[in-house]
Amino acid sequence: MVRLPLTPAEVERGQRLGALLRLARGERSMLEVALDARVSPETLRKIESGRVATPAFPTIAAIADVLGLSLDVVWAEINQPESGEPVSPGRNAREWLAS
Known about the structure:
The protein has helices spanning 8-25, 30-37, 41-49, 57-67, 71-78, 93-98. By secondary structure, it is mainly alpha-helical. 21% of the residues are buried.
């Protein structure tokens, strides 16, 4: 199977996902979070750095669960328009994480 190159939008979405996960991880070590989510530390590192822009859904679900993130929050955050305004009413992920 030939994999098509990622679009600029997919790359940007992957970068936003990585930033969100880094922010949510806070002071916890990458190793601790990866082991708790049952993914390899290298996988988590690649996702957080944006090198894996389209990770598998079960991987993101497991990491989000460990970090206490709702998948709704993750989805809303990574699909925000360039302006940074929330795509749906309510708080965006940065506000949610700050509370």
